[in-house]
Amino acid sequence: MHGVRSATPQTSPDVSLSTFDLLRYAPNPSPLEPQTNSINPIAIQIEKLTMPFPQRTIGDDKVSALGLGCMGMSFGYTSYGGYDDAASLEVLTWAADHGITFWDTSDVYGPHTNELLLGKWFAETGRRKEIFLATKFANTMKDGQMLVRGDAPFVKEACAASLARLGVECIDLYYQHRVDTNTPIEETVQAMAELKKEGKIRYLGLSECSERTLRRAHAVHPIAAVQLEYSPFALEIESDQTNLLKAARELGVKIVAYSPLGRGFLTNTIKSRDDFDPKDTRVSHPRFSEEHFGENLKLVETLSGLAKKKGVTPSQLVLAWVLAQGEDFIPIPGTKRVKYLEENAKAVDVKLSKEEELEIRKEIEKVGGGKGERYPPAMLSKCFGDSPEL
C-alpha cells in the first residue's frame, strides 16, 4: 500500500558517519568508571539521525506536518534562476531524507512537466513507498482558454494520464483542482470514488471549493482534505462569508494550506517588483501590484520584526503560526532550493505561546491583512467555486 507510515530521516547533512558506525564506535562507559552528566556529542548525532519529522494525519495515514509544494519547480515562478530540474531533484531527495514526505503537484503545473519531474525522481530512486503523493485534475486548455472540467469521463482520463506521467500505480490524495461550474459535484465525486474502488487513488480531495460544494461532495464520499490558500495574507476561510474552516472541521476534513508564505512575499526576500522576472505569474497578481506592494510590505516587515525578536527567520515564524492554527492544518510551502527547504523544515521546532500566536494575529488585523486580491479576476472567479445542482 502506498503512502508514508513512518517519516524517519535517512541521512543528515552534518554527520559523515552512518548510524551503524556511530553506534559501533560510540564509547561504552565502563561500569568501574564514575558516570557524569557530560554530553556525548555522538549520542546527540544519533538522536538527530533517528528523530522523526513531526506528523499529522490525513485519513488513516500519518503525513509530515509540513508538506512540499512542487509547483514552483516547473511552473509560474520564473524569477530567481528559473527552473532547474537537477536542483529540484536535489530538493526532493533532501525532503525524503529528512521526513518531509507529503508532496503536492498537479497535472496543470507545466502543464504536465511537474508530474514528469516527480516521476523521474521515483524512477531513479525507487522510493515511491516513502512518499504520500497528492496531485490534482480539472484545469485543461481548449483553443488557448483555460477550462475546468469535472465530468466523469474527464476525471477518469485525467487520472490515467497522471498515473502514467508519475510512473505510479496509485495516487494517495487526488484533488479536484477547481470546481466545474457546469457539472454537479456529485458526478465528479462519484467518478473519483470509482477510481478509489479500482485502486488508482486512496483519498479524495477538493481545492478552492465553496462550503456548500464541500458538504455536497462529502455526502457522496468522505473528503479527506481540502486545499485552500491560507497565510497572514489570506484568512478568507475563517470568515462567515466562506464558512469553510468551520465546515471542514465539522466534517473532519483536513486543511492543506497552499501558499502559506504568501507566494514568497512573507519570506521578506522580495523587496521590489523589480525582483521579479517579467514572465513570473506573480507580476499579474493584485497583491504584488504597484498599488498594493508597499502596503503589503509593511505587514511583511512587521512580521519580520516579530521573527527577529523570536530568534527565527520570517519564513519559520509564519509557518509556525500556520501550524499553530490546529492539528488539522498542514502547510505545503514550495521551494526550488535545498537551503530554503532546510530553513522551512526548522519551522516545526518553533513553538509559539498562545500569547505569541495572538500577537501575530493582532498585527495582521492591525494592518487589515493583505491588500489586493490574491489572484487576477479570471483566476479569482474560480476560487470558492460552487457546483451546479443535480
UniProtKB/TrEMBL annotation:
Gene3D superfamilies: NADP-dependent oxidoreductase domain. InterPro entries: Aldo-Keto_reductase, NAD(P)_OxRdtase_dom_sf, NADP_OxRdtase_dom. It comes from Coleophoma crateriformis. The keyword Cell inner membrane does not apply. One of its GO terms (cellular component) is cytoplasm. Residues 66-360 form the NADP-dependent oxidoreductase domain. The keyword Oxidoreductase applies. CDD domains: AKR_AKR13A_13D (cd19076). Pfam families: Aldo_ket_red (PF00248). One of its GO terms (molecular function) is oxidoreductase activity. Keywords: Oxidoreductase. This is Aldo-keto reductase yakc.
